[in-house]
Amino acid sequence: MLLALPPAVPAQQGLPQLGDGVELSVAVERRLGERIARELYRDPDYIDDPVLVAYVDGIWQRLMQAARVRGDLGDGLEDRFAWQVLLGRDRAVNAFALPGGWMGLNLGLVSVTASPDEVASVLAHELSHVTQRHIARMAGQEKRQSPLVIAGLILGALAASRNPQAAGAVMSGSQALAIQGQLNFSRDMEREADRIGYGVLVQAGFDPQGFVSMFEKLQQASRLNDTGNYPYLRTHPLTTERAADMQARQQLSDRQPGDTTARLLHALMAGRARVLSAAGVEGLRAALAEAASLPANAPAVRRLGTLSGAALAASRLREHERAAGLVRQLLAEVRGDPVLVRPVRWLAAEVALAAGQPARALEQLAGTEAERPGLLLWAESKLASGGAAEVAGRLQPWVATQARDATAWLLLAQAATAQGQALRALRAEAEARVAQLDYTAAVDRLRAAQDVSRRGGADLIEASIVDTRLRQVESLLREQALER
Questions:
Q1: Chain segment 438-449, per-residue pLDDT in tens
Q2: Alpha carbon of 161 to those of 31, 138, 166, 376: distances in Å?
Q3: d(C-alpha 30, C-alpha 112), whole Å
Q4: Is residue 117 part of a domain?
Q5: Beta-strand pair 84-88/95-97
Q6: Which of 116, 296, 371, 472 would you call most buried, defined as having the most Cβ atoms within 10 angstroms of its Cβ?
Q7: Does residue 19 lie in a domain region?
Q8: Which residue(s) pair with 103 in the sheet?
Q9: Using CA atoms, how far apart are residues 335 and 355, in angstroms rounded to an integer?
Q10: Contact at 8 Å (CB) between 466 and 454?
Q11: HSE-up of 440 (CA within 13 Å, CB side)?
Q12: 8-48, pLDDT tens digit by residue?
C-alpha cells in the first residue's frame, strides 16, 4: 500500500525536456530494453524472491508515484516503458538503469543498506536516468551506434562486473571495445540524475538523509580502493562536487520523521538478502555463527537482521529444528507489530515447508494470502498437501490481473499437472515464458498444447485460447526476428 505523499514538489526548471537530442525513439528504446531484460531473466543470478520483490516494489511504487506527481513521466513514457525492477542474487553492490524502464538491483546492495531510504536513493537516481532518457541521449552522441551494438555493450558491461571472460564473450569486436566507455553516463548526466532523483525521493516521503548516507557508504568504499565488490562505483563514479551537492540539498530539506518500524522491517529484508546472496555453504554457516555470537543487549535492528538471516540459512542447510527455534525468537521479538509479524510468518512458513510440514506452513500463512508472498507460499504449501484444485481456483484470478507473474503461472502449471490437465499445464508454462519475454520457448509450449488438444478430449475453450495465444506469441517472435 502506498503511503500518503507530501504536497507536490514541482519539477526543477531549466532541465532538458524529455527527448532533447535523442536519436532512439521511445519505441526503439523499449524494444532495446526488452532485448536486454530477456537476457537478465536467463541469467543464473536472476531471482524472484517474493518477499524481497514485494519489499523493493513497495519502495519503487512510492518513487513512481512521486515521479508521476512531479511530471517526470511525460512524453508517453509511463504507458510505453516497463518500469520494472529485476533482482539479482549477486553479492556485488550494484544497481543499474536499462533502456525502456527496466532496472537491475543486486541483493548485495540491499544487504549493505541500513534503511529503506538508502535503497530508495539509489532507485530514485536510476529512475531519473530513465525519465531523462540518458541512454537514448548517449546513443544520439554516436550516430553510427546501432541499438543492437548498444544492447551488446550493456550486456557486456553487466557481465564484466562479475566475470571478465563472460564479458568478452558477450561484447566482442574491437569497435565494441573501443566505445564501451561511452556506456558510462557523463558527469552532467550523473549530476542531473542526482538532482532529479533527490527531488523524487523527497516527494515520495523518504528521508533525504538516505541520499547522503548512501553517498557516504560509496565514498568510503572508494577510499578503500574498491576491489570489485562495488561495481556501482565504476558505472557511477563519485566526485567531491556530487557529494557536496547532496549534503547541501539535505541541509536545506526538512528531515522526515524517523520510522522505527520501517528500519526494523528493512533489517529483516537486509538479513534475508545477505543469506540469499551468500556464497555457498560457508556463507550460510557464517550467518549461523553471527547469530550464535549475538550479544543479548544488541540493538533491535541488529537482532532482527541477524536472526532473520540465520533462520533462513539454517533452513537451507536442512537444520530444520534450529531454523524453527530461530523463527520462534524472531516472532517473540516482533510480537505486537503487524507490519513486522507478517514477513516473519512468511519466513516461518518457508521453514516449515522446507521441513516437510505443509500443514504447519498453512497455519502460519492464515490471513496473509492477499499479498503475493503469502499467496505463492500458500500455493506451494497446498500443492504439497494435495490441494491442487484449490490452488488452481485461487491462482487463476490472480494471473488474470497479474499476467507477468511467471512464478504464479508455474505454480498454476503444477496444479494443472497434478489434476491431469495437460493442456492447461502446457498453456500455463507458455505464459510463464511469455512473462519473461522468452517467446521461442512459449511457442514451443503452445505448439505442444495444440498437439495435446488434437488428440481429443481437451477442453474446447482452453484449446481455443491456446490457438489464439499461439498466433499472438508467434507475432511477437517475428518482431524479435526482424529486430535482429
A1: 999 999 999 999
A2: 24, 21, 10, 32
A3: 31
A4: yes
A5: unpaired
A6: 116
A7: no
A8: 85, 97
A9: 24
A10: no
A11: 3
A12: 334 443 333 334 444 678 888 888 889 889 989 999 999 99
